[in-house]
Amino acid sequence: MHRVKEIISEQYDIVPAKFQVIENVRFVYGCRCGEKPVTTALAPFILPKTQVTASFLATIAVQKFEDALPLYRQAKIFKNRFGVPFSDTTLSNWMIKASEKLKPFKQRLKERLLEQYLSQKAKAKNKDRS
Known about the structure:
The structure is a single chain. This protein is mostly helical. The protein has a domain at 51-121. The protein is 51% helix and 3% strand. It contains 4 helices and 2 strands, in the order ββαααα. Strands 1-2 form a two-stranded antiparallel ribbon. Strand 1 and strand 2 (38-39) form a beta hairpin.
């Protein structure tokens, strides 16, 4: 027998959330001659000296601002469902630090919107004069 045609059907599926630990390995190299050891560079973190990834920050922010899920309830969910004990204070501090990282983006966005508004206003004014 030979294939006559292919029929494709689609199904929607969702992959449940899961926590994973990402290990960032750094090496320290030393010389037997007694010179100071050299440590390899650390990969860049969105929030230095924290355990949070950009993806996790985005999840927290979406759940807080889009889904209206308070940080204390998120902390409770992370602990009960995943066994990861973050406090709501930790989540709050991460959100504050993340918002500080976004300030330049927010300022530039504000400037661009103002430029567009003023440009449209000037065009409308010139059109009225015509």
